[in-house]
Automatic annotation (TrEMBL):
Family classification: Belongs to the ParB family.
Naturally occurring in which organism (per UniProt): Sphingomonas edaphi
Protein name: ParB/RepB/Spo0J family partition protein
Gene3D superfamilies per the UniProt record, alphabetical: 1.10.10.2830, 3.90.1530.30
Annotated Gene Ontology cellular component terms: chromosome
GO annotation (BP), single: chromosome segregation
Role played: Involved in chromosome partition. Localize to both poles of the predivisional cell following completion of DNA replication. Binds to the DNA origin of replication.
PANTHER family: CHROMOSOME-PARTITIONING PROTEIN PARB-RELATED
Record InterPro entries: Chromosome_partition/occlusion, HTH_ParB/Spo0J, ParB/RepB/Spo0J, ParB/Sulfiredoxin_sf, ParB_dimer_C, ParB_N
Molecular function (Gene Ontology), one example: DNA binding
The ParB-like N-terminal domain, residue ranges: 33-122
Alphabetized UniProt keyword annotations: Chromosome partition, DNA-binding
Signal peptide region: none
NCBIfam families: parB_part
Length: 289
């Protein structure tokens, strides 16, 4: 079972709670150490995938003139070091051709490393919406956090986490529109559950529609789809069932499908990993998460 961390108390609390007694090779790392740049590698769990090269060039120019003033946070891994927070500074230091940079070495497990990397980027507002959503999905699926716990961890509301997770179900074309800035987060949320999301998003871009107009358009599309798709017994899909599916999906952080007929029906929960399946089993059995 996952050990409790500094959920909801900010990045510094999480770091303080996660510090363990240093191993011999990190014993001298109680404070800031000078670490060879070549011994440091990026964190594969880093939620941010896109880096602004122009901004990194500007930072590199500053580092050449004044040095790296703020140490990065790393952990010892396989004879080298892995970045927990500060990859942008590390990249800029490489461009500035520094051989060593100041760093703080801490012993964090993989879960805490992922949490800190996500928190740092969100607090700095460096992630785009899709990267942020992928980070939330990782914390939920890989480390067993609930949506509410993730919200507390990053200082966001549960509804914010839920809305971002919905973006991951968008067609790739709509995701690209969002990343390019053709549509806003509000537009993306509006079309997320529409049956023809990509077509709807293109219509929003062509017409320069506001978020409110997009929501009305998506609502009309869902109403039309509900009337055209028959239920198993031949009746139109009940709009109340669709609303129930969304409500249960928000609560569980999963895609939910409700099939209802004259003799009853079924509720299907869709999971994307074995970790997520394990989390469902724990919730159904009443085990603590």
């Amino acid at each position: 079972m996952k050990k409790a961390t500094g959920l909801g108390r900010g990045l510094s609390a999480l770091i303080d709670d996660a510090v363990r007694p240093a191993k011999p090779e990190t014993a001298s790392g109680a404070g800031v150490r000078e670490i060879e740049v070549g011994r440091i590698r990026p964190n594969p769990l880093q939620p941010r995938k896109n880096f602004d090269e122009a901004a990194i060039d500007e930072l590199a120019a500053s580092i050449r003139e004044r040095g790296l003033l703020q140490p990065i946070l790393i952990r010892a891994v396989d004879g080298g070091f892995e970045i927990i927070a500060g990859e942008r500074r590390w990249r800029a230091a490489q461009k500035a051709q520094l051989h060593q940079i100041p760093a703080i070495v801490r012993e964090f497990d993989e879960s805490v490393t992922a949490e800190i990397a996500l928190i740092e980027n969100i607090q700095r507002q460096d992630l785009n919406a899709i990267e942020e959503a992928e980070g939330y999905k990782q914390l939920i699926g890989r480390y067993g956090h609930s949506q509410d716990a993730v919200g507390k961890l990053v200082g966001k509301s549960r509804s914010h986490v839920t809305n971002l997770l919905r973006l991951l179900d968008l067609p790739d074309g709509v995701k690209q529109m969002l990343l390019r800035g053709d549509i806003s987060m509000g537009h993306a949320r509006a079309v997320a559950s529409a049956p023809d999301a990509e077509q709807l998003a293109s219509q929003i871009v062509r017409g320069g529609l506001s978020v409110r107009q997009a929501e009305q358009l998506a609502k009309q599309g869902k109403s039309a789809a509900a009337k055209s798709v028959p239920a198993p017994d031949g009746r139109p899909v009940d709009a109340d069932l669709a609303a129930l599916e969304r409500q249960l999906g928000d609560l569980l952080g999963l895609r939910v499908k409700v099939a209802h007929g004259k003799a009853g029906g079924t509720v299907a929960l869709h999971y994307s990993s074995l970790d997520q399946l394990d989390l469902i089993c724990q919730r159904l059995s009443g085990e603590p998460i």
